[in-house]
Amino acid sequence: MNKSFTRRSILAATAAASVFLLADQKMAWAMNEAPRKELRIGMSGYPKTLDPVIATDTAIRRIMPQVFESLIARTQDEKMSLTPGLATDWERIDPQTLRLHLRKGVKFQDGMEMTAEDVAFSLGQIHLLGPGGAGATEAVGLLGHIDDIKVEDTHTVVIHTKTPDPLLEQRLASWGSEIVSKHSFDAAGSWQKWTDAPVGTGPYRIVSKKLDVNVVLEPFDQYWGGRPNYSKVEYRIIPELASRVNALKAGELDLVTDIPPDQFAEIKSAPDLEVAGGPVQNIRSIVFDTNDTILKDARIRRAMSLAIDRKLLVESLWDNVLPVPNAYQLPSYGDGYIKDYPELAYDPAKAKELLADAGYKGEQITYRLLNNYYPNQVSGAQVMIEMWRAIGLNVKIQMMENWGQIEGKPIHAIYDSSNTALFPDILGHAWRETGPLGAYPHLTGTWQNQEYFDLGAKLATTMDVAARQKLIRQMLDIITEIDPPSMVLHVSGQFYGKRKDLHWVPGQTLGLDFGPGNPGLNKP
Questions:
Q1: Which domains does the chain have, with CATH numbers?
Q2: Could you tell me which residues are beta bridge partners of residue 399?
Q3: Helix 465-477 / helix 450-460 crossing angle, nearest 10 deg
Q4: Per residue in 82-94, pLDDT tens?
């Protein structure tokens, strides 16, 4: 039987062939892709929350970079340079205004396309102020000065601040500035339901969590940055260091966090394991409660700092792999780094003079201490106790079970802390702890200094580099010499035990990046 061909039938046949060809191509791509494995991570603590605007504790930082992304990203080298993220580019209109062009085709994990409306919501007051609109969030101190977010079109936003801000680009690349799905937030109906399973644009989505047990993520295959590497990412909560290391050696985990140097040799002795990591953008310190009758005297606080041989501390406890900063600052600050600021001094003789001048008679100073929440925390405390004893200070350790006990008022003690630079500048680092909305004045009430607050407020709106450097030097003088709220110890290190065949590269922050953008995971 003869079959007549028409233009319509030929087009229909061609379209059908194209569908089959596309299906064959997709099948071939799937067959060529290596099968994905599960990634199992052992870490020491469970996250306080699963929305970055609320908190910045270590546990949440290790999970949320898989789920959320910011408009501007940052390179994970020592320079921490700005690079395109969910925004492809941006332009300064004036000292208070920034226009950003959004990446097109980005999908949230709920299937909705990211638009300028999501950006306006994420950086707006309803989200930034947190549960109940109380403003008890980390993001308020970082982005609370945003005055208006104008949606010019679906992929363009203009952000206007209340005052000039030389660091707005840095803030938009920082923790708490992540973009969330407005659709899913509204659908959740409450902050509690939202934080049970928040929705972002990252390569993985949250599928389950169990308090103090684990958090489980699955790949989001519509991720704009490429195919996620793993079929599942499970964060197992294992507080005990020995248990984490044993699980790694037994093959139950692929990577474990918070490895101190005294465990390096044991991990390296296994032929299939290695240690990764190094210094990060974080400073370890000891906080003073200046409400205490002894610690309110700045001479006592200065003496405590002068009594510590930080280089010996790093050599003995950290195998000399961590640097000691010159005051509460890091070289990544760029133009905001005061390179010639004096090193933190070790001067026992001067410390004794200060104690005598203060009339110190051996009164007890309490050291509230957790059991190795930080690597080497207890051994470090014991070493410092001896250094303080050598100059005549009577410091006694009081063991605590959790942070609620550490910060329970009245504190009247010293205690350990660490602080990550949300962005590379004193206003993104020390100011987080010492500014009027920071942890010391606002949350714990351990320290106040109005002159310092005024200098920081002026710095926040100063655009000139030389003028900024002058203000920063004055601020460092106050928190280092004149009225120290804390005592800097050293730059923190983050070291990990891992399988050698896990080609993962740690970055400069506490975040663990297991997305397709990690340079190590792109290795064949």
A1: 42-253+502-522 (3.40.190.10), 279-493 (3.10.105.10)
A2: 369
A3: 160
A4: 999 999 999 999 9
Which H or E element spans position 278? strand 273-288
Sign of CA dihedral 167, 168, 171, 176: positive
Q: Which residue has the tokens 């037994």?
A: 250
Q: Is the torsion defined by CA of 105, 144, 439, 481 positive or negative?
A: positive
Residue 440 contacts residue 485 (beta carbons within 8 Å): yes
Residue 271, Cβ neighbours under 10 Å: how many? 7
* The pair of three-digit structure tokens given for residue 110, joined into one six-digit string: 């709920």
Quickly list H helices, 202-309: 241-249, 264-268, 298-306
219-268 residue pLDDT tens: 999 999 999 999 999 999 999 999 999 999 999 999 999 998 989 999 99
Q: What is the pTM of this model?
A: 0.81
Nearby residues of 342 by Cβ (< 8 Å), 6 or more positions away: 326, 327
User: Any bridge partners for residue 232, and if so which?
Assistant: 38
User: H/E/C letters for each residue in 408-467?
Assistant: CCCCCCEEEEEEECCCCCHHHCHHHHHCCCCHHHHHHCCCCCHHHHHHHHHHHCCCCHHH
Report d(CA 297, CA 363) in Å as an integer.
Answer: 13
Q: How far is CA 392 from CA 137, 312, 412, in A?
A: 41, 19, 20
The conformational region for residue 327 under phi > 0 = left, psi -120 to 50 = alpha, else beta, is: left
Length in residues, the chain = 524
